[in-house]
Amino acid sequence: MKKILLKYMTRFTTLREEEQQAIAEQILIEEYKKGTMILRQGEIPDKCYFVLKGCVRQYSIDETGKEVTSNFYTEEQAISNFNHHKQDKSSAYSLTCLEDCILVVGDLDSEKDLYNKYSQLEAMTRMMIEQNFGEVQDELASFIASAPEERYKALLRKRPHLVDRVPQHQLASYLGFTPESLSRIKKRINKDHF
Fold first, then answer.
1. pTM for the predicted model, two decimal places
2. Which architecture, in CATH terms, is 1-121?
C-alpha cells in the first residue's frame, strides 16, 4: 500500500527516493472495517486522511434529521476537514467507511513536524488541496447550472465507479435528488443507450 503513496509523492514532489521512504516510514497506515465512523459531525477533528483503498462517505445531518451526502472519497484522494474558520472548530460533517478501507492517517499536530523536516511535503499538500479545491469549485458550478439528468451523466463520465460502490439512496442525496428520481433517470438513460 505504501507504493501508492510513494507514487503519489513522486507525482507531486521532487523528493529523493530516500526522503520519500523516510516519510513513508513515519506515516501511519490504518485499516478500517466497513461501517466505521472515523469522524462524527460536531467533533473537533485532529486527523486527516488519504485513501489508499476503499470508499469514505462525507455527510451531515440537517436540522430535520435528514442525512445529506456531500462527497465520496476513493483511492488516491485526500480527506481534509477545513473548519478553522469556525469559532468552536467542530466538524460540519461525519465520515464513514462505506467499504473496508486502508487509509493513511495524518495527525494534524505531528504533521507540522514533518513539514518542517520536509518542506516539499508541505508544498505537495498545498498542491493537493489546490487541485481538490479547484475540482470542488468546478463541480459546484456545474451542479448549480445543470438539471438532475445532467448531474447523473456527469457522474457517469467523471466517477463511474461510484454507481456500483455506493448505496443508491446516498448517491441520490449526493446528486441532490430523491432515490425515486435517480431510478427514473437511470431507466431513461439506459433506454436511450439501447
1. 0.84
2. Sandwich (2.60)
